[in-house]
């Protein structure tokens, strides 16, 4: 089931971005085998590790590398999230794998990329987002840049890797040859800033935390606290939506009307925005979040309540679309996007690390004696 049914993927287990790519591929029906280190790490309710089988191999032992290579022989894709050079030192780099399987697509997920002066340095999402120019614009006006969780770099990077793998698989259909996909979290964050680079070139982007219209500088595109201490989000950008906002909230049209989005904001407009935001915030605090939902939700004001992760699955729209699914008691994201014919299967909970080792090796042609020998040598877990 799913549009990637029949695609065989090997995932060398890592953190963050690479497992997200594995989840995306597995959600779409790819047969993903996740290779964990030895000894097996603790079993956790890891949403990103859902819907694939789990194998444990000690890749520091030659027998572990040899076992992985036998899995590579029949794979379409292998991806890893090591620092540059680590896979090569283990003997499982792109050249090693291509010598066994020239059709293999080899995905590489790093923060800085495979090349450049920072390629070998440690980093995390926040560092990559900072170097892309994105972090500089995120935060309260006049304040410091604020970490946007680890959504932009890590999971943008994972999405970039999954997209790159599917692109390479598509190209392989024409040429019959695999290639290396170099996906960097820095590249993902930078690509997300493409629209703003265009705005900046037009003189329509104010740099700095909270200074851009889309970063909270404008009264019609921000979050506001309600009477019960909760929040709502307004995104009334276009003139017709802004006019409806003014009407629904019974704001003074002569005072608010001239200061909607009309292209690059003048100094006069930006100064007015500061005052109007204070007045708008006071109006929003007059009612509870639910009261604002009753008045505005479903209208063209461009409105939504700011929901917590615990609240989001119960929202009627999310329920109607099955945006969240329950897997082993954990509400989590449903596979996306959606397809008219090749509907993905319901996700399965993450398997305990190494739980499928013997089964996967047997399917790859390992004899019972070979599997026993690998277990006795500590290359794989001693489990069935």
Walk me through this protein's architecture:
By secondary structure, the protein is α/β, with parallel strands linked by helices. It folds into 2 domains: 8-192 and 324-376, 3-Layer(aba) Sandwich (Rossmann fold), CATH 3.40.50.10540; 213-225 and 231-303, formyl-coa transferase, domain 3, CATH 3.30.1540.10. The chain is built from 15 helices and 11 strands. The strands form 3 sheets. It has a 6-stranded parallel beta sheet with strand order 3-2-1-4-5-6, sandwiched between helices. A 3-stranded antiparallel beta sheet has the order 7-8-9, covered by helices on one side. Strand 10 and strand 11 (330-333) form a beta hairpin. The chain is elongated, with a radius of gyration of 25 Å.
Brief digest:
With 384 residues, this protein is of the alpha/beta class. It is 38% helix and 13% strand. It starts with 7 loop residues before the first strand and ends in an 8-residue tail after the last helix.
SSE arrangement:
Layout: E1 8-12, H1 17-27, E2 31-36, E3 53-56, H2 62-72, E4 77-80, H3 86-90, H4 94-100, E5 105-110, H5 125-132, H6 151-175, E6 180-184, H7 185-192, H8 194-201, E7 221-225, E8 231-235, H9 239-248, H10 253-256, H11 267-284, H12 289-296, E9 303-305, H13 316-321, E10 324-327, E11 330-333, H14 357-363, H15 368-376
Parallel strand pairs: 1-2, 1-4, 2-3, 4-5, 5-6
Antiparallel strand pairs: 7-8, 8-9, 10-11
């Amino acid at each position: 089931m799913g549009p990637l049914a029949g695609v065989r993927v090997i995932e060398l287990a890592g953190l963050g971005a690479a497992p997200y790519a594995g989840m995306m591929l597995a959600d779409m029906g790819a047969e993903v085998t996740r290779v964990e280190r030895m000894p097996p790490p603790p079993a956790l309710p890891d949403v990103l590790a859902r819907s694939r089988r789990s194998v444990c191999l000690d890749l520091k032992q030659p027998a572990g590398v040899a076992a992985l290579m036998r899995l590579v022989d029949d794979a379409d894709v292998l991806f890893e999230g090591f620092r540059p050079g680590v896979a090569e030192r283990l003997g499982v780099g792109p050249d090693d794998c291509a010598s066994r399987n020239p059709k293999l697509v080899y995905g590489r997920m790093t923060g800085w990329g495979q090349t450049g002066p920072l390629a070998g340095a440690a980093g995390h999402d926040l560092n990559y987002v900072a170097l892309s120019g994105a972090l500089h614009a995120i935060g309260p006006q006049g304040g410091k840049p604020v970490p946007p969780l680890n959504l932009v770099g890590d999971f943008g990077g994972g999405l970039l890797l999954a997209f790159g793998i599917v692109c390479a698989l598509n190209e392989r259909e024409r040429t019959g040859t695999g290639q290396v996909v170099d996906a960097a979290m820095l590249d993902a964050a930078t690509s997300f800033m493409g629209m703003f680079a265009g705005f900046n070139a037009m003189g329509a982007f104010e740099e700095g935390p909270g200074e851009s219209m889309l970063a909270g500088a404008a009264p019609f595109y921000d979050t506001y606290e309600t009477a019960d201490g909760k929040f709502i989000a307004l995104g009334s950008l276009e003139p017709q939506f802004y006019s409806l906002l003014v009407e629904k909230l019974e704001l003074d049209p002569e005072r608010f009307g001239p200061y909607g989005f009309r292209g690059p904001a003048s100094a006069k407009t930006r100064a007015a925005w500061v005052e109007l935001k204070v007045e708008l915030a006071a109006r929003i605090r007059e009612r509870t979040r639910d009261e604002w939902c009753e008045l505005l939700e479903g209208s063209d004001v461009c409105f939504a309540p700011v929901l917590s992760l615990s609240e989001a699955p119960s929202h009627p729209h999310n329920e109607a679309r099955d945006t969240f699914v329950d897997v082993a008691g954990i509400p989590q994201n449903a596979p996306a996007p959606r397809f008219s014919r090749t509907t993905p299967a319901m996700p399965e909970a993450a398997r305990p690390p190494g739980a499928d080792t013997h089964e996967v090796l047997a399917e790859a042609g390992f004899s019972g004696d070979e599997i026993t020998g690998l277990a006795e040598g500590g290359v794989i877990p001693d489990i069935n």
